[in-house]
## 1
Amino acid sequence: MAWVIWKGITNNLHKLSELGIDAVWLSPFYRSPQKDAGYDVADYRSVDPLFGDLADFDQLVSKAHQLGIRVMIDLVPNHTSDQHEWFQRALAAGPGSKERSYYHFKPGRGENGELPPNNWQSMFGGPAWTRTEDGEWYVHLFDSSQPDLNWENPLVQAEFEEILRFWLDRGVDGFRVDQPHAMAKADGLPDHPYVEEAGAGFIEGRENPPMWFQDSVHEIFRKWRKILESYPGERAMCGEAYVLPLSFMALWVRPDEFHQTFNFRFLDAGWEKEKLVAAINESFEAFDSVGAPSTWVLNNHDVIRHASRFGGDYGRATASDGIGPANPQPDNELGLIKAKAATLFMLGLPGASYLYQGEELGLPEHTTIEPEYRQDPTFFRTKGQRVGRDGCRVPLPWSLGGKSNGFNDTGKMWLPQPVSYAALSRDQQEKDQASTLNFYKTALALRKRFALGEGSFDWVETGELLSYQNGDVLVVHNFSQEAKELPAGQMLIASSPLTAQGLLATNASAWLVTNRT
Ligand code: NOJ
């Protein structure tokens, strides 16, 4: 079965090449109890039998390289699975042991150590501490099955340097690094000073919480960068560094650290003109200041798919709360119109754009998943109050019909597809010139043709349209409530058909070639 999944990726890589992407990022595929979709790694040098084995991985990489696609893999250094042998050894060895120093074990507070050592909360809800049978507590910023590693320990650092080499030797082009901003903790693990207000997170403009953004972490990435640079070719690291403001995030992409970080500021700006303009301005200012490319992203495996997110009011995307049957349901028709426009506006920007599987099909969020199928620890740790991220993680519809619209032959899937996915199957969209898939393909081909990724950026005054110029291409979006006249130029692509009068519809974006003199 497993085998089928990875063979499935390898056999369909040509579809991604046709889509026009340059690289794939694989979410964690290592041996794992799958308590957090693989972000609970039990062995960093393996492939979970659910997906295949190392030989399948090698084949995937080699086929990708033949097609000119680079392969980035997901490295999860902040925490392991509780099933990892390091943690099992630590539990067995007991308090005060060298084995325990791989993690953060501490005695509890209270008369009999019955209270957690500090007030930290888990990102998935509830306390960030769990007590072991011998009375010590260990910290986990995520699920209790994901104990945090102690990055002060040089042994932990050495283990990961070897893990990096293991995968670089196998030919990977780089790493997406999970939660790098959480790896270093403040000395002594003090209380979070404003946990009441911020819960597990932080508030922009306030003092750094003791579990996020500690300066000592940068030294680790400098070492990693050197390791990457000791390999032939261009190996890269992209950090999932949720660090704000962006001027602070820029520290993470200084020339000797990460190559890129995800732009969560842009993701969280939603689709509101003022916020969007501010996010773009801040991005260029911050990333330019250290000579790093800006990145752009509208979707990932942690947020509500933008075709649904933009069809309702769901707050900050990165809150990762999802949409459940009890929440107001999105207007997916409006959502898709805005989503395509947002994508076109984003793909015109210089820098690196990240797409999430299925957005090229215009897939909506699955908002009515039954509780029995739920997988996200957020759902369980909040007793269903936050349904979490399952709605964007449903297997893709490759071809209409069968038991899973082409995902497999058995119909067995980790999450069920909603009925609406059948008509959105890739094979149906391939045949339809007006499909979302063909829209993405055209946009990506034009982005390459006009080298927009390596281009330039200037806001341009075009009346009521929001516009910027990148090389020969003028990118416009209509935020107003009425259709608007387009500036002069040759139309390359629009996210919605022009009106009968040839105007740019409300919520639409377009690219035009302009004659700049
Ligand atoms: C960020 C990942 O994107 C998310 O899916 C995961 O749950 C957490 N890190 C914990 O590893």
## 2
Amino acid sequence: MEYNVKTSTPEKVKTACIVVPVFESNKLSPAAIALNSATGNSLSKILRKGDIQGKVGQTLLIHNLSGIGADRVLLVGCGKEPDVSEQDYRKICTASITAQRTFGASESICLLHTLNVDGRDLPWKIIQAVRIFQASKDRKDQLKSNHDDTEISLKKITWLTASKDEQAAVNKGIKIGSAIANGVTLCKELGDLPGNICTPTYLAEHAKSMQNQLKKFKTTVLEEKHMAELGMGALLSVSRGSCQPAKFIIMEYNGGKRGAKPIVLVGKGLTFDSGGISIKPSPAMDEMKYDMCGGASVFGTLQAIAEMELPINVVGVVPSSENMPDGDANKPGDIVTSLSGQTIEVLNTDAEGRLILCDALTYSEKFNPELVIDIATLTGACIVALGHVAAGLLSNTQTLAHDLLLAGEESGDRCWQLPLWDEYQDSLKSNFADMANIGSRSAGTITAACFLSRYTKNYPWAHLDVAGTAWNSGGGNEKGSTGRPVPLLVQFLLSKV
Ligand code: BES
Ligand code: MN
Ligand code: ZN
């Protein structure tokens, strides 16, 4: 899809379809008023007939109005004027693109940005719209023999501005929105791939292909032999139970000044989590193919910022492995030595995410980072605490936590902070090693973060637990990767420019 901006008036502009807001009680938006006057009050007459009540998300397509430059008018219900909530604005954008997918216009003019969204500026409205319009193209049927490759007619959407001054703001929104949307699409595609295709090797190959596609981008992949030489005993203990070799993927985007400290993003890339010897129950175990979604979000975020050519340095680190039961797998009670030198008693082989992350977090010191954020589908407990709305956020630096909370609000991809108080550290005590890999039954998301905090003492660090937000589960057609938290991370990085 192509996006554009143009300065003209609703009644004059020539287009296959013009998309304008209408409100409840037959109220028209300024753009609809302009069309109404030019067409001898046709719109008010139609509204009075009651074919659309102006409720949020309703649409009505009208053909052949004379007196205006548009072939079609798509009315979109926007609720009670004049202000709409962020949520309603998104619903309105979704309704408009859903309707436009069904008819034959090859381009359209959009006026949904003329709505007032409390506290949000023009670029914000365009970013949200582009993200929603782009997401409407995302497909999940690539592995079906009869997958749907039919292209929709709509190829171009143009926002109509009243003055040329607004064009720069729209163009900025288009650029950022497209980059986020492409990052989200990549994250979703990788997430939805099954474990037998999306192996650690597959992710490593994909990272290498990104080096060829993107500027200022370098990919390095460490093999198990190299990891063993470095001493990544925690990560390798997880991988030992699998036939698939682990890969340690490093992606460096150098858009900033030489020598400027990078922001490091560490993503859990567990391509299938069976639980290992502490095996998981069968129901919904297929969803553990999504245990690499943290890693996928690092791929998506790096792609987005490289596409925007942001002037910052960012390193993506994705430790990737399977967690399988095997004669050589971790056993409960095994003690392993992490890259940091700290020893870990593996009381539950299903708490494997922290084992691969701790070595990646220690390794990240090597980049002399400004800050480190890890992203992981780490605990089922996070779903109990926050459901599927917000990601869990824990941090050793309050200013960093604050910036992430803000980026979450701004992007609509929210996180919520949980405490990382010392009192919670006690539950990781082990009689035989420096720490156990699990805490007691309660506060599972916090004790998992406590575990990670022991490997992140040398830099500002935040942890995002995306167990509840990275994918939609269940049997319905909503099941699939969400692409979160790519919007949150890109927004955060934009705020650092
Ligand atoms: N990948 C899982 C966490 C998970 C489970 C995410 C379900 C989303 C849905 C992680 O590796 C895991 O198994 N965590 C355990 C930790 C426990 C053994 C302390 C959990 O949450 O049950
Ligand atoms: Mn697990
Ligand atoms: Zn896991």
